[in-house]
Design goal:
heterodimer, A: 361 residues, mainly alpha, disordered N terminus, B: 305 residues, 11 helices, globular, disordered C terminus
């Protein structure tokens, strides 16, 4: 038995690691989240116009993509510049399966998640030898390569053969949706439920053994190794998990847009995605939702009021610089603190002015 | 579909693409060397390199077509713009991020990239058919080797790549500033202790990198296309060359850049591969990185560069 294995077996017993213990306020928080979710699923499609329902479906999709990237960046400290390409793979696989088979939509989602996971892990396996800058750059290279392949392979449009693409097709059939969610509001609900399941899967990972291993690796890889953590396994696990959720998101995306074009997946998107995830807060689950809102709801709103979405790209650029220089934990962490500071400032100022008035004759 | 049976083009067909490839390779070498010098000195891999060049080239285009400025003066403005904006970024963010991991510094340059991309799209909206272009006066001059037309621009592109590689090597080797840069690549703290004005050395590296970005912006706008996104992401090709050289060797970058340029252009006449030719830098860099890293299992404490 190697020393590393011994170290894994003799776990330190601390009071907080007993399995039955639940954080204080956990149930209240869970109830609040459940109620909020029910409101989103039931009430939101009633209030919003079709335009915003579609935008919110995209928010659900991209929250999951951001969540996957957040696992890599925030949990393990691996920066990937190719997640938009992974999303494209997921969408491609799902579209191919939806055209080729009559499998239930849920099965297709699961399969596209698993196939994307296999591909992502395959990429991750050799990339694990690299870290930091080199890993970020190789993922950028791979994203570029995948963009080129997709541009010439095209997305399936109901044709035959491996690629499922037929350029001569006159009436391109739309990608089918699940039978229970053919309309846009229904599909929005469907995508939110899919997103919630993905969030739960990631949450379970973060809260249990893999999450602790990732935290150790993020702090210091040599120290993690010395503590008996199989760093290769857990890094690969993170890659697999991120690719899986992104693959499922790709499947949901395919059904949401119904027609896929390779021009919709650009290398730039991967960079914007990283920018937004860093802005939202890579260390928090909530940051992923903020990132999704930034990435899909804000452009929809700007488009609605007639402002060029280019402003948003500029904003994301400034946001990245701001996050990296002053607020590494992102908006999710920064905003409440800023608000608290603001409240303190205002209350302090009003108290001071009240005191001044009191002292004035 | 990829047909595995390749029908190789004749040498006759290859020749013009070889010229294009060498010219492109020269510009990739130019940018690659510019990025490496900055990286060695400051630890920042400037991913905004392409966006800076694109912005400069668009400014030149604006000055030439709308303000009817002298062409060479407009190109000078582009080169200076590159130098100034990169220096400004370096002074503000290079400084505040100087103690951080190279990965963080590099990610931050993506912020500048996004800002520049957004501004470019705002100012120079891509309105359908009306495509912009820059054509250097040297495009019309040239000579023929055998039956191939070689323009002076092609020659300049390759020459600039070679010249910058030679000059940079000599500069780093013999000049005082170059020696200081090499010292900083080894250890910033110790270099500062020895009395080297590290801030000033860093500033000159940023400025030099920006100048090179402006130059390659003009050349690539002429050789490839004057399009914000295309030029911004062409940086990946020179990045690939720099990566193959492990972000350290100047001559390694030069050779890798030429190979990337030639292979990229060389597969154009091969029907089954022509659609995939843009993958060349990615495939070569990924293969080289995987090969170079095959023995590494774990990196300890200090970053590997």
């Amino acid at each position: 038995v190697s020393t590393a294995e011994l170290a894994t077996e003799t776990k330190p017993s601390s009071p907080s690691s007993s399995p039955r213990r639940v954080e204080r306020g956990f149930y209240t928080r869970a109830v609040i989240i459940a109620v909020a979710l029910l409101l989103v699923i039931i009430a939101l499609p009633q209030i919003l116009s079709l335009y915003y329902i579609d935008a919110m479906t995209q928010v659900a999709v991209y929250s999951v993509v951001a969540l996957g990237l957040g696992v890599l960046v925030g949990r393990v400290g691996l920066i990937s510049l190719g997640q938009a390409a992974v999303l494209a793979i997921g969408a491609w696989v799902a579209a191919r399966l939806l055209f080729a088979t009559s499998l239930p939509y849920e099965v297709v989602l699961l399969l596209s998640g698993i196939i994307t996971m296999a591909l992502g892990t395959l990429v991750g396996l050799p990339a694990l030898r690299m870290r930091g800058l080199y890993l970020a750059l190789i993922t950028l290279m791979l994203a570029g390569a995948i963009t080129v392949v997709l541009a010439s392979l095209n997305f399936p449009n109901g044709g035959h053969g491996f690629s499922g693409y037929n350029g001569a097709l006159l009436h391109i059939p739309p990608i089918r949706r699940p039978g229970i969610a053919t309309t846009d509001p229904a599909y929005f609900r469907y995508s939110v439920i899919a997103a919630v399941i993905m969030f739960l899967i990631v949450l379970i990972h973060v809260r249990t053994k893999p999450g602790r291993a990732w935290a150790a690796i993020r702090q210091s890889e040599p120290a993690a190794l010395a503590a008996g953590i199989n760093t290769t396994l857990y890094k690969l696990w993170a890659f697999a998990l991120a690719s899986f959720v992104t693959g499922v998101a790709g499947g949901v995306y395919a059904g949401a847009v119904r027609y896929l074009y390779s021009i919709d997946f650009q290398t730039q998107d991967s960079i914007t995605l990283l920018a937004v995830v860093l802005m939202g807060g890579a260390y928090s689950i909530w940051g992923a939702i903020v990132a999704g809102l930034f990435l899909q709801l804000l452009p929809a709103i700007l488009n609605d009021v007639g402002v060029s979405p280019d402003w948003l790209v500029i904003l994301f650029g400034i946001g990245v610089l701001q996050v990296l220089t002053t607020a590494p934990t992102g908006i999710v962490d920064q905003l409440p603190r800023d608000i608290a500071r603001l409240v303190r400032f205002i209350s302090g100022a009003s108290r001071r002015s009240a005191a001044n008035q009191g002292s004035a004759p | 579909m990829i047909h595995l049976a390749l029908s190789l083009p004749s040498w006759q067909d290859e020749q013009p693409f070889l010229v294009t490839g060498l010219a492109l390779g020269g510009v990739y070498a130019l940018s690659g060397v510019g990025m490496i010098v900055l990286f060695r000195t400051t630890g920042v891999l400037n991913l905004s390199f392409g966006a800076v060049g694109a912005f400069g080239a668009l400014i030149s285009w604006q000055l030439i077509t709308k303000s009817h400025m002298n062409q060479w003066l407009a190109y000078l403005v582009c080169v200076l713009f590159g130098g100034v904006i990169t220096l400004a970024y370096g002074m503000v963010f290079g400084r505040s991020l100087s103690g951080r991991d190279p990965l963080v510094k590099t990610t931050a340059t993506l912020g500048l990239t996004l800002i520049l991309l957004g501004v470019m799209d705002l100012l120079w909206t891509s309105n359908g058919g009306a495509s912009r272009s820059i054509s250097l006066p040297t495009d019309n001059h040239g000579f023929t080797v055998g039956q191939i037309q070689v323009t002076t621009t092609d020659v300049i592109a390759l020459a600039v790549g070679i010249v910058i590689t030679v000059i940079t090597t000599a500069f780093l080797r013999y000049s005082k500033l170059g020696t200081a840069m090499r010292a900083m690549a080894n250890d910033r703290e110790i270099t500062a202790t020895l009395g080297v004005p590290v801030r000033r050395v860093e500033a000159s590296a940023w400025f030099g990198c920006g100048i090179v970005a402006g130059m390659s912006g003009i050349l690539l706008a002429d050789l490839v296309a004057l399009d914000a996104t295309t030029l911004t992401f062409l940086v990946i090709s020179s990045l690939a060359a720099a990566l193959i050289a492990r972000l350290s060797s100047i001559w390694g970058t030069f050779i890798a850049a030429i190979v990337i340029g030639v292979v990229d252009a060389g597969v154009t006449p091969i029907a089954s591969l022509t659609n995939y030719r843009d993958m060349t830098p990615f495939v070569l860099a990924a293969a080289a990185l995987l090969f170079l890293n095959r023995r590494r299992v774990l990196s300890l404490a200090r970053q590997e560069f």
